[in-house]
Every structure is written in C-alpha cells, then in structure tokens.
Design goal:
Belongs to the glutamate-gated ion channel (TC 1.A.10.1) family. One of its GO terms (cellular component) is plasma membrane. With 404 residues, the protein is α/β, with parallel strands linked by helices. Among the domains are: 112 residues, 3-Layer(aba) Sandwich (D-Maltodextrin-Binding Protein, domain 2), CATH 3.40.190; 103 residues, no CATH class. Strands 4-1-5-12-6 form a 5-stranded mixed beta sheet, covered by helices on one side. Strands 7, 8, 9, 10 and 11 form a 5-stranded mixed beta sheet that branches. The protein has a two-stranded antiparallel sheet with strand order 2-3. The N and C termini lie far apart (125 Å).
Length: 404
C-alpha cells in the first residue's frame, strides 16, 4: 500500500531569543534566522513539502495543564493542529506520551550564569601565594632548623641568632656562618637549597597574582546557589519549566531553592535578553547553556557555571500520524553526524563578537595593573620601613645610654 504524502503540512514554531528569530516578509511569509532557524530551513528544504507556519497563541513549548491537555506547540500537535513542532523543543518522557520525537539534533544542559566577582582587595595579598597550612609548616621548619643548628654549635650561638639568620636567608640576605663544622655546613647547605625553592616559588606565584588578581568567592554550583538564596544574599531567576523541576525535585536544596524562587516570583524572561544585557552583582540567571553561549559567549564579565541542573536532547516534535518519520530522522541524523548545530553555534558567537566591542574593551581594561592591585605591596613596604626606622632609633638611644 502506497503512502499518500500531503501537499502541505503545518509546522508549529516559536521564537526563541537569538537562536530562533521569526520575521514576516512583505508578502506575509515567515522567515527564520538564528541557529535554530537555519536548522529548520535545512530540514524543511530537504523534506520537500510546502509549509504553513503557526505560532502558538500562548507562546509556550508545551506543558501539561490540570485538565489533562497540553499547552503550546505540544498541545497543537495533540489537537492535530500541526504536523511538526520545532524550536528548541526538549525531548521529555511526558511529552513523548502525546507526540512523537525525531532523532535528537543537539544536546543541551541547564546551568546558570552570573557576573564574574570583583578582584579581591586586601592588604594581606602578599600572604596569598601560600595557603595557611603552608605558612604554618614553613614557620615550624624555621623553628626546628634553628633548634638543630643551635645544638650543633653547642650553645656558641643562641637560638634567636640562628632563627634570624635563617629568616634572613628567606629574604635573600647573605649569611656569614664563620668557621663551623662539616656537619653544620652540610645542614646549612640543605637549608639554603630549601630556602631557594621557597623563595622562587613564592616570587613566581606572587607575580602571577599581580598579573591576574584573585577574585572574590563566587557561587559555583546549584547547592551553593541555594544556600546563598536562603541567606538572602542574592536573587536567582528561573523559567517556569525549570521552576517546576525544582519544586518536584527530591533534593532538599533544590526544592528549597524552588520554593524561594516561586515565593518571590523570580521568573526569567529569556525573550528580553540581548548580547548587551547587564548582569548585575548577586544576580543569577538559570538558562540553557546553548542560549547562554549565543548571548554571552564573547563576554568576559559573565561567569558560566560548570554545574548542570539537568540535561536534555533537542528534537523535532511530530504528530504520530505524520507520514515521513523515516525521512525526517535520516535528515536529522546527517545533520547531527556532520556537527552542523555546533558549527552554526560557533559561527553565531563569532559574528556576535565582531558586532560588539564590549568584550574587547573589558579585556583591555581588566588586564592592566592598577595601583589598587599593589596596595598590599605598598602597605608591606611602609610597615617594614617604619619598623626598621624605629629599630634604628632604639639602637641609637641604647648606644647613647651605654656610653654614658
């Protein structure tokens, strides 16, 4: 029995920010652009039908309503108002009960973005190259070595004298050990090698901090985001679909996060995003990673979390009576194997970078070394000079008292 192919098919489409732009031509036909728009054009041209396009009135992808019906594009297919649905439509188990899905053409993760923290300002920056445990171990090693050297000299030289001599070697000061035993010289050589490694390691690390200063502590995953929101330190916006996922999660921190977001009506409006959208401090926006890359991929003031809330496949939705499922899957498989979606996404990011000068301007200003970055070095210099000056005065006064 030959399958009768339709002359025209109806396709449900939905604009989706920078990835799927829908414009009307002079003759009233819809034109598609963006990464998703180019994928849609390629697939429909390969199928070879004539098409009518419909945008759902509720502007939704599709969610299950309390009455058992579906909204958005999924609902249109369920009611036989559309043969195909396309525009960043996630393949889910619930949706697959009422509509069919093609082979996936892309994979996406749901994450969040925020503003990159400011540079850490501290007068103790000179302590940052080593962590606390390293500084403690270094001090204990200094004390232990001073004690051992004092024992080798049989009390000829005091512990404090050895301590300050070894400390001076860490400051790259020359030390005159005098006429001492072979064991003492061997032990001193080991210490000087140790001091050289410590000094070089400290200097190189400190230089790297001056070139690229440390950042304030940032929220890196959804667990930390939940704690920050509970403390009232920040705001986190989620889409309606993701908010439902949070509220139904079995993880306590995600469920608590969803309750706070729902109570404050922090609903994300991705349609209002643009490459120049300002991301404020202590503000977090949850969205799909591909969307984030398309808008902010060239911005160096935006932090992309490596954590993911969930992952999903993107696919065409179709009416289960659709005639050309095999052909549709074959076309999408070729697109997926060729890596077309990834290439289009990278090309879009490059074009965005060329259109906006924000990224290059920010990188130029942030790479400069300012006086604020050297405040700890200046503070240490002033403190050391002041201390040395008072020591000098004390020695002068002491020598005057002795001479009387």
């Amino acid at each position: 029995m030959r399958v009768k192919f339709p002359q025209r098919i109806n396709v449900a489409v939905l604009p989706f920010g920078n990835l799927m732009r829908i414009n009307s031509s002079i003759d009233g036909k819809l034109k598609f652009s963006g990464v998703e728009g180019k994928i849609l054009n390629a697939v429909l041209n390969s199928l070879g039908f004539q098409y009518d396009f419909t945008v759902p009135k509720d502007m939704q992808w599709g969610r299950l309503e309390p009455d058992g019906n579906w909204s958005g594009m999924v609902g249109m297919i369920q009611r036989d108002e559309a043969d195909l649905a396309f525009s960043y439509l996630s393949l889910t188990e619930e949706r697959s009960k009422v509509i069919g899905f093609s082979n996936p053409y892309a994979f996406d993760e749901h994450t969040f973005i925020s503003k990159i923290p400011k540079n850490r300002k501290s007068t103790l920056t000179f302590l940052h190259p080593f962590d606390q445990s390293t500084w403690i171990c270094l001090f204990l090693t200094l004390v232990l070595m001073s004690t051992v050297l004092t024992m080798f000299r049989n009390g000829i030289c005091s512990f404090s004298a050895h301590f300050f001599k070894l400390f001076a070697s860490l400051l790259r000061q020359a030390i005159n050990t005098g006429n001492v035993s072979r064991k003492f010289n061997l032990l001193g050589t080991v210490w000087f090698l140790f001091a050289q490694v410590i000094v070089l390691s400290y200097s190189s690390t400190l230089l790297s901090f001056l070139i690229q200063p440390l950042k304030e502590t940032s929220v890196r995953n959804f667990n930390e985001l939940s704690k920050a929101v509970q403390r009232g330190n920040c705001q986190a916006n989620f889409s309606n679909f993701t908010l439902s996922y949070l509220l139904n999660s079995k993880m306590e921190h995600l469920k608590k996060l969803g309750e706070i977001v729902s109570g404050n009506s922090w609903v994300a409006n991705t349609s209002a995003l643009s490459p120049e959208t300002a991301i404020q401090p202590n503000f977090f926006l949850a969205l799909n990673k591909n969307v984030a890359k398309s808008y902010f991929g060239t911005r160096n003031d935006v932090y992309f979390s490596e954590d993911r809330l969930y992952a999903s496949y993107l696919a065409f939705g179709y009416n289960k009576h659709f005639c050309c499922i095999t052909k549709l899957n074959a076309i999408i498989s070729r697109i997926s194997q060729a890596g077309l979606y990834g290439k289009l996404l990278r090309d879009s990011s490059v074009k965005l970078f060329l259109k906006t000068s924000k990224g290059s301007a920010n990188s130029e200003t942030e790479s400069r070394l300012s006086l604020d970055d050297l405040i700890s070095a200046h503070a240490l210099l002033v403190a050391g000079s002041s201390f040395s000056f008072f020591i000098l005065l004390a020695e002068i006064v002491y020598s005057k008292i002795i001479s009387i």
